[in-house]
Amino acid sequence: MVKIAPSLLACDFAELKQEVTRVKESGADILHFDVMDGQFVPNISIGLPILESLRKVTDMMIDTHLMIENPEQMIDAFCEAGSDMVSVHFEATPHIHRAIQQIKAHHKLAGVVINPGTPVESLSQILGDVDFVLIMTVNPGFGGQSFIESTLSKITWLDEYRNEHDLNFEIEVDGGVNEETGALCKAQGADILVAGSYYFKHEDYKEPVHKLKGD
């Protein structure tokens, strides 16, 4: 069964505690926490104080997506603040193996992320070391963008690669996910669907979870 990870970037931050409670009650599996530095991506978002507060009010798994330059400088802090999963962009550091091992040293799930313009084959040397791969299906930095369908082939490639090499990393997808695009991703082998605008626009948060899971 596919896992659903609502992206808090699209929630009402004035009602953060209530939003997180509703996310859990909806049957979602993971909280997706986007961190942007205004350098690697052209936007600035939430950071350590919000994560620390969030960790105090929920026992849900928190998936921290670092959209930042030189992620090695901040990995320790985000791991210690309460993340359960931490992912770094392949494009953000020349030392991707070091970054992955740094996350694992905290006994967290470690992930690598690639942008739509990065060839998925570039990840072949790191796939044996990661717990999950996050495929960006929009260009990172802003919510509410349209799904880039050409990224579906990356999911297919990853699914075939892990089967061929007997690996067990999960495939996560983020960007423009809704009922239709989510179904396309699942058909190609995706395990985790990140949904922001689509998820939080529903008054009944259980509805998008059921639709994305295909219940």
TrEMBL record:
It is an enzyme of class 5 (isomerase). Its cofactor is Co(2+); Mn(2+); a divalent metal cation; Zn(2+). Keywords: Carbohydrate metabolism, Isomerase, Metal-binding. Binds 1 divalent metal cation per subunit. A divalent metal cation binds at residues 32, 34, 65, 174. The active site is at 34 (proton acceptor), 174 (proton donor). One of its GO terms (molecular function) is D-ribulose-phosphate 3-epimerase activity. It holds the Pfam family Ribul_P_3_epim. Pathway: Carbohydrate degradation. It comes from the Bacteria. Its EC number is 5.1.3.1. Substrate binds at residues 7, 65, 141-144, 174-176, 196-197. It catalyses: D-ribulose 5-phosphate = D-xylulose 5-phosphate. HAMAP family: RPE. This is Ribulose-phosphate 3-epimerase. The lineage of its organism: Bacteria, Bacillati, Bacillota, Bacilli, Bacillales.
